[in-house]
Every structure is written in structure tokens, then in C-alpha cells.
Amino acid sequence: MSSTEPERLDALEVSLIHEAAELFEAADHPTLLRLAKSFVRVVEIIGSVYDLRHLLELIMRESERAVDAETSSLLLYDTESNDLAFEIALGPKGDEIRKIRLPLDENSIAAVSALRRAPVNIPDVRKDPRWNKNVDEQTKFVTRSILAVPMLRQGRLIGIIEVLNKRGGCAFTEEDVNVLLILSSLAAIAIENAQLYQRSLQAERLAALGQAVASVSHYIKNVLTGLKGSITLIESAVHDGDYHILDRAVNVLKRSYGRIAELVKDMLSFSKGRNPEQVPTDSNQVLLEIHDMLVESARTRGIEIATELEPDTPILLLDREVLEKVIMNFVENALEAVYERQQTDYQIEGRVTIRSRYRDGELSIEVEDNGVGIPEWELSKIWTAFYTTKGTSGTGLGLAVSKKLAEDGGGRVRAVSNPGQGATFVFTLPALAIESPDMLPTLDDERAPDSARPT
Ligand SMILES: Nc1ncnc2c1ncn2[C@@H]1O[C@H](COP(=O)(O)OP(=O)(O)OP(=O)(O)O)[C@@H](O)[C@H]1O
Ligand SMILES: [Mg+2]
């Protein structure tokens, strides 16, 4: 069927629409208003709710309201096992009821409605042999009357809506049957919509997983090449008794090991997150250590690393490891961006600046560079795991991990860029200033069992 061709309505749907039309014609004004309101709400639900469970609950509430029922249940048809499964069952025994499955036979009212693809209206369940007492026994709910209506989509059975006990003690009317029929056909569309959405989400996730596996394999393959090279070196070193070659080989080995260890650590912190471990920290000292660690290798590449740190920043209670990791990632990226620009722009004096300031309980650290910069369209992508423009030399995990760690600790990260001219990355994080040594947590505080703490 082409996408422009209207979907053909099957006989059942046509008869439903006829019934609806007759109902509208026959209905008095209050009923019409009630129906119209239900319609509007259900149509709104169809368009806006993609979470299947939430959707089913809304449909149940709407059905109860529309026909004045005490409660309801919703069963979905399982095409594989050819039976009906309680999707939503409320009340304290809800979970047990959800395990009950009804085969498509004549032994339950829902199944009869499903088999006949027609409503089944039972004014008094005690007089009906098909009444399945199991559910009442488990819920301690006393069912008097029941109306089961199939949810159909182009003749396919999607499930059954059951409404229980018409309020006021009487039975469900013919009008209730019609109202529920209309609602159930809308509900079928909504459920199918949500199921399709979930399936496409799953497909998207699988595609993302595939992409992740591809990136990691690529990266590992690259490291393995290094490892293989070092094995060849070791073999020839042993063969020739040359310890200089052995030294070189061991260095390659160490670097490869380091790259794999970093990758595993990054993947773990990305997937598991981390409980912030706040310790009294001299944040400027941490930044100076990062500066000292990288300044020499940067200088050999013609890049200066400068620091503009706010003096008198107090000792702060924060997760030192997160601060180190995030800023290290920012500075390494900045150096790589400047280096990349220098490959085409020989005149440029490479510069990376680390700035810090502490205001209103918030520490803010900025890493500015005059590298290649980031185009506008790419700014939102760079935080995505495995997004890299560095081929096999990058994993694309640096910023994703930084963002996750920052947010797990209540902080934020952001980037601005002037494409072709440079970029600035900012990490902000709330941090309590420790003004007196009394505020430092003591070892005893840290070790106090939960039960000993005041609640
Ligand atoms: N300062 C920067 N200037 C320009 N582009 C940047 C900068 N920082 C990050 N990027 C872009 O964001 C991408 C993702 O960065 P991220 O740190 O997550 O991964 P990576 O650096 O590619 O790999 P890894 O961090 O594993 O070495 C980079 O590939 C790069 O394109
Ligand atoms: Mg990086």
C-alpha cells in the first residue's frame, strides 16, 4: 500500500463507525457532551503518550469515567502464545494478577469477547458459567457486572478492555457498550502507536550499541597493533641480546596497557556513574598540577598553557577526582584542537588558558583555546558517547564521561566556540567552602554507621 493511499477500513471498523454515528444521532445533549469530552481526551492521549504502561492506565481511567464503572482491567493479546495477558491490574495483588494469562477459550468473559471480536455484557456475573472467579479471589474485589470490549485495529485483535460494576448497582447499558466500543477502537490505535514507537526506540538503541561496539573495536584494534609491534621488538631484542630495544618495547607495552586501562575506566564510569566522594580540596592546586603535568609536552609542540586562577579561593568540599578528570579531558582536547589548527595555520601561536573563579557557592572553571573550534551544528554532538573526529586515536568518550561525572555530582558542562578560531569549555559545580578546620569531616564522622546518624 502506498503511503498516500488511505488505509482500507475493514467491515468491523465500518460497523463500529455506523454504530457511533447512530449513537451520536440518538444521544441527548448531556450524553453527547460526555462523549465528546471523552473523545477529545482519548485523541489527546493518542497523540502525546508513548509510554505504553502510562498509556494503558490512562485508557483504563478514561473508560471507567465514560461508562461510570467502579474499576477496569486491560488485557493485551499476545500473538506468539495466542492468549490474553493482564497488562494493568491495580490494587495490592496487582502483580500476581498480572501473571495470570487467559487462553482464548470459552472459560473467561475476556476470552469470549476476544474470540467473537464483539462486546460481551454480563449484568450479573454470578449467573454466568464463563465467569472466572480467580481474579476476584486474588483481589478480594467483588465483581457484580462486567462489560468486555475488544480493541481491534484493522480486524487484528490488540486486546480487551473490561469495565467492572456499573456505579449505582445496575447493569451496563446498550449506550455504555457503544461508548466503550468507540473508546476501544481509539485505544487500539493509541496502543499500536506506542508499541511501534517502542520498537523503533529499541531499533535506535541497537543501532547506537552497534556504533559503540564498532568504535571500541576500532580503537582496540589500533592498540593491539601497538602491542603486536612491541612483541616483535621484544623477540628481536631477546634474539640479539639488545637491551635498548627491550626498553623501547616495554615503553610501547606500557602505553598500550595505559590506553586500554583508560578505555575500560571511561566505559565503566560512563555506564555505572559514580557516587560523588567529596573531600576538602584546594581546587587551584589541582589545576596547577594539571598545568605542570602537560606544560612541557605542550611546549615541545609550540603551545603555551597559561593559568588565570582566582587567588584566595577557599578550600572546597568537592569530588577531587571528578574535577581532575573533567579538566584533564578539556585541556587534552584543547591541546589537540590547537595542534590540529597549527597543521594548516603555521603562524598561529598556540595557547590554552585555564581560568577559575568561585562565586555564590559555585566553582567555575574555564578552558579556552585558539584551536580549530567547533562548528555550530557539531556543538550538541560532541557530548555523545563515541562521537569523535579523531579516527582511531580517539574513543569519543572523553566529553561524554566528563558530562556524566559532572552531572552526577550536581554540576554542569558547556561549550562555546568561534569556529576556526577556538573554543571554550566550562565546568561549573556547586561546592561548599570550608571556612574553619571544624568543618572538615573527621574520620569518625565518615565511619559512623547509618543508624547512628540523627534522622
Ligand atoms: N577544544 C576543542 N576544540 C575543538 N573540538 C573539540 C574540542 N574538544 C572536543 N572537541 C570535539 O569533540 C569531539 C569529542 O571529544 P571527546 O573528548 O569526547 O573525544 P575525543 O577527544 O575525540 O577522544 P578521546 O577523548 O577518547 O581521546 C572531538 O573528537 C572533537 O571533534
Ligand atoms: Mg578527548
Largest sheet at a glance? 6 strands, antiparallel
Tell me the name of the CATH class of the largest domain. Answer: Alpha Beta
H and E order: HHHEEHEHEHEEHHEHEEHEEHEEEH
State the domain count: 3
Estimated helix fraction: 40-55%
Unreliable stretches (pLDDT < 50, length at least 5) are 1-10, 442-455
Give the CATH topology of the largest domain.
Answer: Beta-Lactamase
> Number of DSSP strands?
14
Gross morphology? elongated
- The CATH homologous superfamily of the largest domain is termed GAF domain
| Hetero groups | adenosine-5'-triphosphate, magnesium ion
Query: Termini separation (Å)?
Result: 65 Å
The secondary structure category is alpha+beta
Work out the helix count: 12
Report strand order across the widest sheet. 3-2-1-6-5-4
Examine the secondary-structure arrangement and name the CATH architecture of the largest domain. 2-Layer Sandwich
Strand content bin: 15-25%
Mean pLDDT rating? 81
The whole-angstrom Rg is 33 Å
